[in-house]
Amino acid sequence: MNKMVKSIREAIQLAGLKDGMTVSFHHHLRNGDFVLNMVMNEIAELGCKDIFVNASSLFDVHMPLLDHIENGVVTGISADYISAGLGRAFSQGVLEKPVQFRTHGGRPSDISQGNTPIDVAFIAAPAADPMGNCSGKYGKSACGSLGYAFADAMFAKKVIVITDNLMPYPLQDWSISEDWVDFVVTVDAIGNPKGIVSGTTQITRDPVGLVMAAHAAKVIEHSGLLKDGFSFQTGAGGASLAAAKFLKDIMLEKKIQGSFGLGGITGYMVDMLQAGCFRNLMDVQCFDLKAVESIRNDPRHMEISAMQYASPASRSAVVDSLDVVILGATEIDTDFNVNVHTDSNGYIMGGSGGHSDTAAGAKLSMIIAPMFRARLPIVTDKVTCVSTPGKDIDVLVTQGGIAVNPKNVELTQRLKDAGLPIVDIRELKEKTERITGTPQRLPKGDRVVAEVIGRNSQLQDVIYNVL
Amino acid sequence: MRRSMLFLPGNNPNMLINGNCLGSDAVIFDLEDAVSPAEKDAARILVRNTMRYMDFGGCEIIVRINSIDTPYWKQDIDAILPEKPALILLPKTGSAQDALEADAYITQVEEKLGFARNTVGLMPLIETAMGVENAYAIASSTKRVQALFLGAEDLTADLQCKRTKEGKEIEYARTRLVVAARAAGVDVYDTPFTDVNDDEGIVKDAEYAKALGFTGKSSISPRHVEVINAVFSPTQKDVDYAYEVMEAIALAKQQGKGAIALHGKMIDAPIVTRAQRTIDMAEALGMRRGN
Amino acid sequence: MQIVKNAAAGTMESSDAYVEIEPAQELTVQLESVVKVQFGDAILSVVQDVLKENGVEKANVRVVDRGALECVIRARVETAINRGKGDA
Question: What is the pLDDT of residue C87?
Fold first, then answer.
């Protein structure tokens, strides 16, 4: 049996792609990805129209999508995260049908339940063998985990692996196995390593970030959750990483051994693993070189699929066993609803990613954000877009105080007893507006440009165009 | 209570407006070294406005003006004084005469503003060999002086020696300043620890300053503030002992005794003074008595 | 007060504002701001206030705001005026 195909174009033809079908991509190559653009160009040249693109995330490297939209090649988009350049275009209404936003757990949930069937899935593989066994851990384009690609590989009607590093059969230590793969194509490069993983991020020097991080670490310390078996996820933002560093110091001092660190994994989480803060890392995506190296060499650092990570359709997902998650926000309202989809002017510049999933699963979900950014208060009466519902958010940490969701009576008391500066979220809003002034609200557009679909597959909110 | 003082560059809005959230007991808005000559005018107005429009709550504001051998210092005082900083930090104070010169001008501006005399305190920054040698004279030159402040970076340049992390080269200046300040009955603050990434070094350095008798310590990094606060706060043991001392004294008074022993040690006046100071600080910090 | 020469104050850093002022026959204020929708009116009125307080009746003023608080905008406008006036 021969799965090797000469070109991407031939693979697309063999897969039987036709007008109106759905293709899918995963985003482990992040802003260094070449695959989505290569594939979409071939699809355009083959004359296909009305294609729906289901991508786990879209980055600004994917700006050529806008041409395909203009030419009618692409007419529908679903993603969990869309970065600012593309987001701006979508907010201006370049796509007729609203963009569908899902979460990292909601996407595989909808794929596995047949709500969003995929005709052809494209797997960007840093290493693959001729039968399609593939891995993200090896090769010049190594990205580590391939977590988001599993659902695509398992449920798409046809699966095409694209690699720049063909290895002899059988590839050892594969992630996605040959039994799901129809065709294998080799190309010169699947991505630019510089855009795939970053070097080591330095701990933030921003004083406000450090203060917030110190508060966050203390909230965790006094939450009652920081004991042997503790599990933790944090984002890659400066203050979140600093919080992880402070938390590590506390865990080492108190000799606490956690069970696992989860998520998109950074070098800081690897440091925590190596220092003995956790027994394992559960990794759906690597953010930097150190994480890639660790997942390749350290058996304690394990790859998980997005289904195992966060899908509500799974029999269980890791987020359900998570103690604490640290998350960001562009806005949070007095009901603790969080917006991570749009910026202060209403333009799309992000998305839930795993935000809603981890917030729903974790025992303590904490938002770290400054009281204001560029004069705009973080706390508002009502967020522009509900990315994660307030019922799933427990604590907001700012430099000017810590607001606890009133549903958490016991936690509030614990943190007060620990001497932390607890403040009512409404008071925090007033305090901030005394500094910044009260902003005038953005005028709302008249057209829905994006739908935010909750992890339960239901429509949660919509995003309007920017006037 | 001033355990920690954090330097903030006077022409950096982002740092100034967040200054009250960084955990230090006081902030020092810096118009001197952190501001280039071309921006002195801008920084002066920015710092003045920050003080005028922002609520710093319990965080005390100190302003480091330019030294009296520059053309800027009087304009600094003119701009800043109406906003009533707690203290003016006067760089390169080398003699009682320097302190008196600043005092005279501040007095003049206070009068113009209708403020009571000594509304704004003076904290001479001792950072020259001359300043160290004149420390007591400076500390006792005028009632406006509330504290001395050691600046080791400029001092070591003046001493023609290298500034090291261990700080042997400033040993004499440190002890000299503590003695001079205490003799004059004013507070004394230690120089910043400048390696922002040495988490152990700052602890050692702050503990050493505390052991020498410094009232508190300044910092150029928000990362050092928490350590400094912790080092210069009384421990629970200190607080409990202070309460025991005060109880023993009250009992002695009740019984009409002149002297009393606690744990086999005579309680004398200095011990009582120190106990009272500890209790005052504990109350300010919201610390309660343990067992 | 007379603005007699071109002057500028502030920076383009986040939370700061950059203010340019130049002599003119009438008063114009131009605003560019990352928070124009939310705070544009408030910023313009503050700029007008500071110009009035300093007796500036004729000048072209251009403010590039990077999310500065009111006290910062006031400071930058005042500094620009001081730098552009006759006796400076």
Answer: 61
Chain C partners within 8 Å of B42 (Cβ)? 9-10, 75-76, 79
DSSP state, B192? P
Pairing of strands A395-398, A401-404: antiparallel
Q: Which band of pLDDT confidence, cut at 50, 70 and 90, is reported for residue C88?
A: very low
Q: Does domain C7-84 have CATH number 3.30.230.10?
A: yes
Query: What are the structural domain ranges in chain B?
Result: 4-231, 236-284
Q: Is there a contact between C13 and B45 if contact means CB atoms under 8 Å apart?
A: no
A457 located within any domain: no
Quote ipTM for the complex. Answer: 0.96
| Per-residue pLDDT tens digits for A18-36 | 999 999 999 999 999 999 9
Same domain, A123 and A169: yes
CATH tag, B4-231: 3.20.20.60
Smallest Cβ–Cβ distance between B226 and the set A214, A399, A419 belongs to: A214
Mean pLDDT of B58-69: 96
CATH of the domain at A419: 3.40.1080.10
Please give the single-letter amino acid code of residue B57.
G
User: What is the b/e burial string over A395-427, where b = at least 16 CB atoms within 10 angstroms of the residue's CB?
Assistant: bbbbbbbbbbbeeeeebbebbeeeebebbebee
In a domain? residue A278: yes
Residues A296 and A405 in one domain: yes
Low-confidence ranges of chain A (pLDDT < 50): none
**Which whole-number Å values give the CA distances from A176 to A30, A171, A241, in the listed order?**
19, 11, 30
User: Residue A144: which of A303, A355, A292, A264 has the closest Cα?
Assistant: A292
The whole domain housing A333 covers 207-442
pTM: 0.91
DSSP string covering A268-322, please? HHHHHHHTTSEEEEEEEEE-BHHHHHHHHH-TTEEE--HHHHH-TTSS--GGGG-
Asked if residue A358 belongs to a domain, the reply is yes
C37 touches chain A (CB under 8 A): yes
Instruction: Identify whether A416 is part of a domain.
Output: yes
